[in-house]
Amino acid sequence: MVREQLKGKNIVITGASGGIGAEIARLCAASGSNLVLLARSIDKLVQLQNQLQQKHQVKVDVYQLDVSDTNQVKEVFTDIFIKMGHVDILVNNAGFGIFREAHQASFDEIKGMFDVNVVGLMACTSMVLPKMRERRFGHIINIASQAGKIATPKSSVYSATKHAVLGYTNALRMEVSDFNVLVTSVNPGPIATNFFNIADEKGTYVKNVQRFMLQPEYVAGKVVDSMLKKTREINLPRWMNMGSIVYVLFPRLFERLGKKAFNQK
Ligand SMILES: NC(=O)c1ccc[n+]([C@@H]2O[C@H](COP(=O)([O-])OP(=O)(O)OC[C@H]3O[C@@H](n4cnc5c(N)ncnc54)[C@H](OP(=O)(O)O)[C@@H]3O)[C@@H](O)[C@H]2O)c1
């Protein structure tokens, strides 16, 4: 499906070497966007670049980037601006989680998750914001999670990173609203990607939630459909979002009744 509004737009996607990021890249390429794909696995990026260029005759640049390295972020984005001139849409998708109880999480894991999921996302955003504000045009899409709305056991650190992403995203939306810059958060429940290879090393969570896992193509489609449209949040699946609304209204009751359901990991 061609999304006309994306034709010729410059779109940067972090964490594009697999999962949702790669699916978003596929859909944007099919709509004729110019793409910049970022991740650490440069071989996977080059493979995707070749596929997309051959299939859709679009311009695709790739950079090896660890978003937790803020010096690298600065260098890569400076180069992107030299080559592209401007960025229309930034999708902050790079992220990972490790499911462990708080007392078992090592300092390295805690720091690692915050450096990638939070600091990396903010660093990439900081690089595109001045120009978006100046041009009075742009869209920042932050892939957060339902874990940013409801914190669950064994996901204390990961949930904390995604709560941070939502806090940042909500404030940013208000800061830039007078500059015609759009800001969207995406809060999916479990999606069938390689995310769980790291997050759920025992496979318990995947086994328990397999029946209602979202497909990455579906989530990517929702993200791409929101591009350049004023969309505050994308919450998937809808029933899970209903849960987060009830949680805000009745937290104590929700935690008591939901304890068993939350302990899926
Ligand atoms: N899967 C889920 O259930 C789920 C649910 C809600 C939200 N999310 C969020 O969705 C986003 C994408 O996850 P996914 O499910 O597509 O997982 P995935 O398949 O594991 O993809 C994660 C992507 O992030 C990149 N990445 C990880 N660390 C990075 C770093 N330090 N610097 C740059 N890129 C990095 C990975 O590329 P390299 O390894 O090549 O760097 C990969 O391209 C994440 O933010 C995740 O928290 C996932």
Please state the structural category: alpha/beta
Q: Helix count?
A: 10
Strand order across the largest sheet = 3-2-1-4-5-6-7
Which class in CATH terms?
A: Alpha Beta
Shape: globular
In the CATH hierarchy, the architecture is 3-Layer(aba) Sandwich
Write out the CATH superfamily name: NAD(P)-binding Rossmann-like Domain
What's the order of the H and E elements? EHEHEHEHEHEHHHEHH
Q: What value does the average pLDDT take?
A: 95
- What small molecules are bound in this structure? NADP nicotinamide-adenine-dinucleotide phosphate
Flag low-confidence runs. Answer: none
Q: Say what the CATH topology is.
A: Rossmann fold
Share of β-strand residues = 5-15%
Tally of individual domains? 1
Looking at how many chains there are and whether they match, the oligomeric state comes to: single chain
Search tags:
Rossmann fold, 10 helices, 14% strand, binds NADP nicotinamide-adenine-dinucleotide phosphate
Structural notes for this entry:
By secondary structure, the chain is of the alpha/beta class. It has a single domain (about 5-260), classed as NAD(P)-binding Rossmann-like Domain (Rossmann fold, 3-Layer(aba) Sandwich), CATH 3.40.50.720. The chain contains ten helices and seven strands. It has helices at about 20-30, 40-55, 70-85, 105-135, 155-175, 195-200, 205-210, 215-225, 240-250, 250-260, and strands spanning about 10-15, 35-40, 60-65, 90, 140-145, 180-190, 235. The chain has a seven-stranded parallel sheet with strand order 3-2-1-4-5-6-7, with helices on both faces. The model has no long low-confidence stretch (mean pLDDT about 95). It binds NADP nicotinamide-adenine-dinucleotide phosphate.
